[in-house]
Design goal:
Elements lengths: L1 H18 L7 E9 L11 H10 L4 E5 L4 E5 L12 E9 L2 E8 L12
Parallel strand pairs: 3-5
Antiparallel strand pairs: 1-2, 1-4, 2-3, 4-5
Length: 117
């Protein structure tokens, strides 16, 4: 009886852990590293300078996906630093509006700007 209860408890715990992150597969996201104060659009003409200024003033790094008009929070605030204001591809898992960052790199193909509306 004790063995059956132990087995049932173990299976319950393992099942709960496995279902806790059902969408936790890695994806590739494209956009530019921006500051949360800038979002999708930089008031300054130079996105690199604008992003660095925003970070210096306390903003967080974000991924600005102009194509889909979406701003993603980034879990890692160290990896984006070398790419401030530049196009990137981010590999990670999406949890809400935050990407749990596995890696950030220059995109393999040039990104196209979204058409102006």
């Amino acid at each position: 009886m004790k063995a059956s209860l132990w087995l049932a408890g173990t299976l319950l715990v393992l099942g709960t852990a496995a279902s806790a992150r059902p969408n936790a597969r890695k994806q590739v996201f494209y956009g530019s590293i921006s500051a949360s104060s800038c979002g999708l659009h930089h008031p300054d003409a130079d996105p690199v300078a604008c992003t660095k200024q925003g970070i210096a003033n306390g903003s967080k790094y974000v991924l600005a996906d102009e194509k889909n008009q979406k701003v993603y929070q980034l879990s890692d605030q160290t990896k984006p630093a070398p790419f401030a204001g530049l196009p990137v591809q981010v590999v990670g898992t999406l949890e809400g509006d935050t990407i749990q960052v596995a890696s950030i790199a220059a995109p393999k193909a040039p990104l196209r700007k979204a058409a102006p509306k």
